[in-house]
Fold this protein.
Amino acid sequence: MTAAEKDTEQTAAPSPKAIAAAKAFVAAHGGSARAVVENLGQAGARIVLVGEDGLLGDVMVPDVAAGEALVEAVDGLSPHEWDGETVAALKIGPAHRRKMAGPRAR
């Protein structure tokens, strides 16, 4: 096994903290959630979670492979893309919209 393969193998495993955060989100938001893994380049990957109740959460991991491994490791998470069904499942309230808009919206 080459050094590059070892690095890939090591980064493909999500941290226990990331797994715990995803499990807590699933438990708090209805027992299941959609997971969209987004590549952020050098910053890693973001797993956007959409709970059964429509609320959002996210977990950061080192790379897309770790994100996909996290989705597989957590019961109740299912992999999704940003399709119409996933977007329709969101329930974003006015307070969250203001927060996302930043200080100019306040």
About this structure: The chain has one domain: 9-105. The first strand starts at residue 33 and ends at 39.
